[in-house]
Amino acid sequence: MPEPWTGRLIGRMHNNKVTLEQLAAHLGWTKSYCSMILNGQRKPRGIREKMEAAVSELIKEKENKTA
Disulfide-capable partner of 36 in 30, 41, 57, 61 (CB 3.0 to 4.6 Å)? Predict the structure, then answer.
């Protein structure tokens, strides 16, 4: 069962046009591994903070490119 934070993170990604591919590449992981985490199949320690930080960085990069 996915945790509530994953739904919020996916919503934030969608609203800011950040893809799963971009997130996986940014973290140096496979798309499959990211998907397993977001679907609640894997729960590594500290993953919420790591993924939220990565999405924030990707959003900031997108904002800087359009500025």
Answer: 41
Break the chain into its structural domains and give their ranges. Answer: 4-66
pTM: 0.92
| CA dist., res. 2 & res. 37, Å (int) | 8
- Using alpha carbons only, what angle is made at residue 21 by residues 18 and 24, rounded to the nearest 5 degrees? 100
Distance CA 32, CA 16 (A): 21
- Residue-wise pLDDT tens digits, 3-25: 999 999 999 999 999 999 999 99
Phi-psi region of 38 (alpha: psi -120 to 50; beta: other; left: phi over 0): alpha
